[in-house]
Amino acid sequence: GLLISYLSPCYVSTALPELLEVIAELAVETPRLLVMGDFNLPSAGETSGVAREFMASMTAMDLTQLISGPTHTGGSTLDLVFVSGQWQSDLELGELVVEP
């Protein structure tokens, strides 16, 4: 399964809980899940409770974040790619190069 998301910076804090509900439903129904998109978490503050809760929720759903560096010219990581544990074990991932 594939879910692609864009969260507008002005709605990140209010939209994340609903998005997490959708992802949770998909994670249960779809053992091989890829979630990717521009989540604009820096707009909530990368160390904010909202951002930490989002990342913890994704981890709790067995979704691993693959992007480890900045995806924006300002040095922030806006774009994220998550894969489910089952799919990750089936995939051979080469080096993922992201250039802002």
Overview of the molecule:
The protein is globular and about 35 Å long. With 100 residues, it is an alpha+beta fold. It starts with a strand and ends in a 10-residue tail after the last helix. Strand 1 (2-6), helix 1 (12-29) and strand 2 form a beta-alpha-beta unit. The protein has a single domain (2-87), classed as Deoxyribonuclease I, Chain A (4-Layer Sandwich), CATH 3.60.10. The mean pLDDT is 81. It is built from three helices and four strands, in the order E-H-E-H-E-E-H.
Can you give keywords for this protein?
single chain; 100 residues; alpha+beta; Deoxyribonuclease I, Chain A; 3 helices
Give me a quick take on this structure.
The protein has a single domain (2-87), classed as 4-Layer Sandwich (Deoxyribonuclease I, Chain A), CATH 3.60.10.10. It is 36% helix and 19% strand.
Mean pLDDT: 81
Output the CATH class name: Alpha Beta
Uncertain spans:
none
N→C terminal distance: 26 Å
What does the secondary structure layout of this molecule look like, with pairings?
Blueprint (H helix, E strand, L loop, with lengths): L1 E5 L5 H18 L4 E5 L10 H12 L2 E3 L13 E6 H6 L10
Helix pairs in contact: 1-2
Organism: Micrurus lemniscatus lemniscatus
Protein name: Endonuclease/exonuclease/phosphatase domain-containing protein
GO molecular function, one term: catalytic activity
